[in-house]
Design a protein that fits this description.
The structure is a single chain. The chain is an alpha+beta fold and 232 residues long. The protein has five helices and 14 strands. It has a five-stranded antiparallel β-sheet, with no helix packed on it. Strands 10, 11, 12, 13 and 14 form a five-stranded antiparallel β-sheet that branches. The protein has a two-stranded antiparallel ribbon with strand order 5-6. The longest helix is centred in the N-terminal third of the chain and has 34 residues. About 5% of the residues have low confidence.
Length: 232
């Protein structure tokens, strides 16, 4: 057999390349590549649709969130968590404020500012166990962002001054435990935005008092943990 001409060799190379690229003889490689990209796009769309269907199916299976009881007391819409101050310091720009880091059993300690410098020394603040109102909107207090509020009981003295004390959980109450209220439904905490919009904390302030046993109460319902009542 004689040697192949240059044209025959070129045709052989083209046939070999077509085979490697899975092209039909004489097909345009650019058109084939375009078709492949189109197929990949269609496959991705199909996968996205399937994922969306599975997500929607999961939502349908889980059902809608249970409606909130319209008779739920406002206090049960708040979230009071057991916490302990792990670090406290004087606010550099406010005469009445302490800044605190409080362990509430969460991933990170909460930073909260409290106007307690007239009532507690810095040493007394360190390691103090307390209750944190956890579902309040964060507020900037003289440049310090405060994520919640500590709960205290206040009483007027005869000389017109005020006595302020922390409402403390029992020593054995675990950090992060959510306080319940004796005789009331289990708490169903609202979002911070709902609490602010509906002024829920303000609505509860008049009903929060201590009883003759120094227990924190809301309209007589005692603030409870699994280890017992909270006291001031």
């Amino acid at each position: 057999m004689g040697a192949k001409s240059a044209i025959e060799q070129l045709e052989d190379l083209i046939s070999d390349l077509e085979g490697k690229l899975n092209l039909a003889p004489g097909a345009d490689p650019a058109v084939a590549a375009g078709k492949k990209q189109q197929q990949q796009k269609q496959q991705k769309k199909k996968e996205k649709k399937q994922a969306a269907k599975q997500k929607n199916a999961g939502k349908a299976k889980g059902g809608a969130a249970a409606p909130v009881d319209p008779n739920l007391p406002d206090i049960c819409k708040l979230e009071f968590k057991v916490g302990v101050i792990t670090k406290a310091w004087v606010h550099p720009d406010a005469d009445k404020l302490y800044c605190e880091e409080i362990d509430c059993g969460e991933e990170q300690p909460r930073q909260i500012a409290s106007g307690l410098r007239a009532h507690y020394s810095l040493d007394e603040m360190q390691g103090q166990r307390l209750l944190v109102v956890a579902n309040l909107k964060a507020k900037n207090l003289v440049g310090f962002k405060s994520f919640g509020m500590v709960l205290c009981a206040a009483e007027k003295n005869e000389d017109g001054t005020e006595k302020v004390e922390f409402v403390e959980p029992p020593a054995d109450a675990p950090l992060g435990e959510i306080v319940t209220f004796e005789g009331l439904p289990s708490p169903t905490p609202f979002s911070a935005s709902q609490v602010e919009k509906k002024k829920i904390f303000a609505a509860c302030m008049g009903g929060m008092k201590t009883n003759d046993k120094c227990e924190g109460t809301f309209n007589g319902a005692v603030f409870m943990t699994t280890a017992g009542p909270c006291k001031a």
